[in-house]
Specification:
Layout lengths: L1 H23 L7 E5 L6 E3 L2 E5 L10 E3 L14 E5 L3 E6 L4 E9 L14 E5 L2 E7 L9 E9 L3 E8 L6 E3 L1 E6 L9 E5 L2 E5 L7 E8 L17 E2 L4 E2 L4 E5 L18 H4 L1 E6 L10 E6 L5 E9 L10 E6 L2 E8 H4 L7 E9 L5 E8 L8 E5 L1 E7 L12 H7 L5 H16 L18 E5 L19
Parallel strand pairs: 1-3, 14-25, 16-17
Antiparallel strand pairs: 1-13, 2-3, 4-5, 5-12, 6-11, 6-29, 7-10, 7-13, 8-9, 8-11, 10-16, 14-15, 16-28, 18-21, 19-20, 20-27, 21-26, 22-25, 22-28, 23-24, 23-26
The structure holds 2-acetamido-2-deoxy-beta-D-glucopyranose (7 copies).
């Protein structure tokens, strides 16, 4: 009997060792679509292959290459864009239901053929309006990357580009649609509303737009160095500088633990740097560290705060309070306790707040009643601020999906139904393209691009002046 139980213990141990091994491998998403729009060749950016969409696009959709490559941009994906002079969509087959990361890359460039002043469009991800009356940033400025976290429980993710009117066009330079790690967004956060802190449920079902992603006390983290290809910017522009705080950097190993924040929630580069309040003598500094983030009124925001005690000399010495919008959100936070008594072990906390009229969302960390002299009395390693869809699935502007779909000019209502039917037929004819990455041979890509147009349906080859290659 004893040997049997010993065997099973050994087996369980082996299994957990195996699973540890699996967890230590880098994240490989089931759905992983990287599209280099408007390009005739694939582009590799930071070891990631962005596949050209040219073979799947209707020739009436202009693809455009930049005449002069901008010197400061090494990323090839910004050399080309695809233009749409009518509502158009990309349809992605979803194999892994759940939260998906959707990133849209926009960069205007100089062109003799296209006047970017005429770029004005809406973008929908499934039923969510993610961009409204958008122009794609400004020429000469750096690319604009919009990132969304969208729950998908259907078999498709449909990305619709919708010019605001017939004289305007839409464009996009690159698209990423990636299934998110299962532990990236959990279903419950803490809703901080004045003095009250209560559960906010069904978080995963909200559409989120990442507004700020900040590596506190550290350097910029690029997609190359992030486990799920995010960008984290330094916190200097948000931090209200105070004398007693200092930056800390940790060169050791971050202790990721099962059930805690994983490397996909925050990479080593984020947890390995922080700002702290330290007490160097027998008095505890009576100050907070505060960060201010500009936000737009009228939405709820998810605030994710990342902590990792990389500064204390031993366990049980760090206690502090966390405030959002000047309301106490987490009292006497004890990182030793919440990480199961480990130093340099990451922890994160999700808070939901209402954006108010101030246009600013503030996060503060400061000593608590339990703080200790001659110790660290406050720490913060990273912050993410995400905008949550308001009612009718709106993440930008005031128009909902229905209003946008109806806004495209059409002659009569029967044409509208024809259009809907056409969409259904087209959906069932989705084209799947499979490409093999030269060396790895396992990188399959399945997607299709479907044109949809109302008034052009009957006028056969109507408007083609946008077609052709420059
Ligand atoms: C774009 O065009 C403007 C005006 O024609 C010019 O001043 C600018 O240098 C050009 N930019 C690039 C990156 O070529
Ligand atoms: C769309 O943007 C343009 C210019 O940015 C502005 O003139 C126009 O009023 C906006 N329209 C709506 C409906 O917001
Ligand atoms: C990645 O991180 C390492 C170590 O932090 C740094 O030296 C390197 O420059 C980073 N690479 C990129 C592309 O950001
Ligand atoms: C502790 O140090 C701070 C700043 O270094 C100083 O302002 C304060 O007076 C000191 N307090 C005591 C009790 O020495
Ligand atoms: C820290 O900020 C909170 C919220 O604004 C405030 O109640 C508290 O008094 C501040 N603490 C200090 C020492 O300023
Ligand atoms: C700290 O202790 C004081 C006095 O005991 C109390 O009034 C105050 O509410 C406590 N502050 C917090 C944030 O718990
Ligand atoms: C976001 O949209 C969903 C439906 O798509 C809705 O159930 C939810 O209430 C919206 N969120 C907010 C905060 O209004």
């Amino acid at each position: 009997m004893e040997t049997a139980s010993a065997k099973s213990v050994f087996f369980v141990l082996l299994l957990s060792l195996l699973s540890l091994h699996v967890f230590s491998l880098s994240f490989s998403p089931i759905d992983n679509y990287l599209i280099d729009c408007g390009s005739t060749v694939d582009a590799t950016v930071d070891n990631r292959l962005f596949v050209s969409d040219s073979s799947c696009a209707d020739s009436s959709y202009l693809l455009l290459a930049s005449s002069s490559r901008s010197v400061q941009l090494s990323d090839r994906i910004y050399d080309s864009a695809r233009f749409f002079d009518r509502p158009s969509r990309y349809v992605f087959k979803i194999r892994d239901q759940g939260t998906h990361m959707v990133r849209l890359h926009f960069h205007q460039f100089n062109s003799s053929k296209i006047d970017f002043d005429d770029a004005q469009f809406h973008v929908l991800v499934n039923n969510y309006v993610v961009l409204s009356n958008f122009s794609g940033g400004h020429q000469m400025s750096s690319p604009v990357v919009k990132e969304y976290l969208i729950w998908v429980d259907t078999e498709k993710l449909v990305l619709t580009f919708f010019p605001t009117k017939k004289s305007k066009f839409a464009f996009v330079n690159a698209i990423e649609v990636i299934s998110a790690p299962k532990d990236l967004i959990l279903d419950t956060a803490q809703f901080v509303n004045g003095d009250k802190v209560e559960n906010f449920d069904r978080l995963t079902k909200q559409a989120l737009e990442v507004i700020h992603r900040v590596n506190v006390g550290g350097v910029k983290v690029t997609p190359f160095n992030d486990t799920v290809w995010r960008t984290w910017v330094p916190d200097d522009q948000f931090f209200r500088s105070i004398d007693v705080s200092r930056r800390v950097y940790f060169g050791g190993r971050i202790k990721y633990q099962d059930g805690g924040a994983s490397r996909e929630v925050g990479p080593d580069n984020v947890y390995g740097t922080a700002r702290v309040i330290a007490s160097a003598n027998a008095s505890i500094p009576n100050v907070n560290m505060t960060w201010d983030f500009p936000v737009i009124d009228g939405y709820k925001y998810l605030i994710r705060l990342h902590f990792c005690d990389i500064a204390s000399i031993s366990l049980g010495l760090l206690y502090f309070n966390v405030y959002v919008n000047e309301n106490l959100a987490y009292k006497d936070l004890d990182l030793s306790f919440v990480t199961g008594y480990a130093l340099a072990s990451p922890f994160y906390a999700d808070f939901v707040v209402d954006g108010d009229h101030s246009g600013v969302l503030s996060v503060s960390v400061g000593p608590s009643n339990k703080s200790i002299e001659y110790a660290i009395d406050g720490i913060l390693n990273g912050v993410e601020i995400m905008k949550m869809n308001k009612s009718m699935g709106i993440l930008d502007g005031e128009l909902c999906e229905g209003v946008i779909l109806k806004s495209w000019p059409r002659t009569n209502i029967s044409l509208w139904f024809a259009f809907l039917a056409a969409v259904c037929v087209l959906l069932s004819l989705s084209v799947f393209v499979t490409r093999k990455k030269r060396n790895e041979g396992k990188n399959s890509v399945a997607w299709s691009k479907l044109p949809m147009d109302v008034s052009e349906v009957n006028s056969s080859h109507g408007n083609q002046q946008m077609s052709g290659k420059l």
